[in-house]
Amino acid sequence: MPELPEVETVRDGLARHVVGRTIESVTVLHPRPVRRDLRGPAGFAAALTGRRVVDVRRRGKYLWLPLDTGDALLGHLGMSGQLVVQPPGAPDERHLRVRFVLSPVVEEHASRDPGDGPVELRFVDQRMFGGLSVSQGGAELPPEIAHIARDPFDPDFDDDLFVGRVRRRTAGIKRLLLDQTLISGVGNIYADEALWRAQLHGERGGDRLRPIEIRRVLAEARAVMGAALVQGGTSFDALYVNVNGESGYFDRSLHAYGREGLPCDRCGTPIRRAEFMNRSSFSCPRCQPAPRARRLPSRD
DNA sequence: ATCGCGACCTGGTTGC
DNA sequence: TGCAACCAGGTCGCGA
C-alpha cells in the first residue's frame, strides 16, 4: 500500500520521464478512477489533451503534474494504484484504467537516450480506491488537497505546531498519525512501525502524551520512512515506474506490521494484532503498553 | 471542532 | 471441487 516513501519514489520516477512531454491522447478505460472529475471521462480527456507536463509534485500521498495551462493532473494511488511509464505498444496491464500517450521529449532537452522517444503513462489500479482528476488552477497546489497537511520531510513542516495540535486532541496517537490534516504521508504500515520504534501504544490519547513522546514518534516516523525512501529510490529501473504494495521491497525491515505472533525484535514477546478502525494494528504488548482506560466523565 | 464508523472496490486466500 | 465469506486499507461523508 503506497505511503509517502512509495509515492515519492513514483514522483521521482515521473519527474525523470514525463516532464517536458506533451499529452497527445488520453484513453479512459474505466470510468471509476476519474470519478472525482466532474466533467466525466470525456471532459477529463479533453482537458488534458495537448497540454504539456511541466513538473511532478507531491503532498503526502497525493501527486500532481502541473501543466502549461496552470491546471494540474491530480492523482492518488489509493491502495493498489500504480503509475507506470511504458514504451508504446507494451502489452496492457490487467488492470489498466487510463492511458496517456506522451510525445517524445522536445528537441532542446533530448539526449541520445532511447527513453526520450514517445512513451505511455499508464494508471493501473486493481481496487480503484485511487483516482485521477484535472485540478483547475491547481499547478501550485490543487485546491482539492489544500486541507492535506505538509509531510514530515517538507522543509516547512512545523514540529512545534504538530506537537501542539496533537496535545489538544483526545483521539489515540495512531489515529492522529493517520489524520492527513495533521501530518501527511503516514499510512497504516508506517504508523505501526513508528509507534513500535517509539515504544508507544497507538491508543494513547494525544492529550495524554508528553511533548517528548510526540517528538519521539515523529522522529521515528521520519526515520522509518526515510529508510524506505532510500531503498525505494533505488528499486525501480530506468523506464518502469512502479509502486506495488505487494512487492515488499521494504518488508524485511518491518518490526511490527504483519508480524502477529512473531517475537518482538526488541524483547521477544509475541507481536499482537488488534482491530482498529476496521483494519489491523500490530504492536508489542510489552514494549508498547496499552493506556489505562480513560475515566468516564463524572456527572456531578 | 472533533470523534468514530460505514461505504467504496477487487481478487487472492481461507473455510466448509 | 465449488462457492461464499473474509481480508487488505486510504479517503470521504455522515451522524452524534
Short description:
This protein is of the alpha+beta class. Helix content is 24%, strand content 18%.
**Can you write the helix and strand succession as a string?**
HEHEEEEEEEHHHHEE
| Subunit arrangement of the protein | single chain
- Measured distance between first and last alpha carbons: 48 Å
Please state roughly what percent of the residues sit in beta strands, choosing from under 5%, 5-15%, 15-25%, 25-35%, 35-45% or over 45%.
Answer: 15-25%
- Rounded mean pLDDT is 87
Give the fraction of residues assigned to helices.
10-25%
Segments where pLDDT lies below 50 for 5+ residues?
233-249
User: Given the helix and strand composition, which structural class is it?
Assistant: alpha+beta
Radius of gyration: 21 Å
How many helical elements? 6
Spatial shape? elongated
Question: Can you count the beta strands?
Answer: 10
What summary fits the major beta sheet? Answer: 4 strands, antiparallel
Strand order of the largest sheet: 1-6-7-5
